[in-house]
Design a protein that fits this description.
The chain is an alpha+beta fold and 100 residues long. The chain has helices spanning 20-34, 78-81; strands at 7-16, 38-51, 54-67.
């Protein structure tokens, strides 16, 4: 980890009927599908849903930190990838059936 890294922190809740560890893994795996550069997790709270006198479902609230991309990693403009400037005309309908 570089001294200049910057992180965004989001809160999620992972769930599982199989235990706290599986609830954590479920939450982190799901977050990693939509967040790039997931780097750490902090457990904030653990809860369980009780049915028939037993814990039926575990819920783990977590903070997840992911590293923000460097400016050079940012997405490029549509104008950088369109070879024909007319293709990038914002007034042109995106769908052929759209009236504009």
């Amino acid at each position: 980890m570089s001294e200049t890294d910057t992180y965004k922190i989001v809160e999620i809740a992972g769930t599982s009927p199989d235990g706290v560890t599986e609830a954590m893994r479920s939450g982190v795996n799901r977050a990693a599908k939509t967040l790039r550069h997931v780097d750490w997790v902090e457990v904030r709270n653990i809860r369980g849903h009780v049915e028939g006198g037993e814990i039926a479902h575990f819920q783990v609230e977590m903070k997840i930190g992911f590293k923000l991309e460097a400016e050079s990693d940012q997405p490029i403009s549509l104008l950088d990838v369109v070879s024909d400037p007319l293709e990038a005309d914002p007034a042109r309908p995106l769908h052929p059936d759209h009236d504009g």
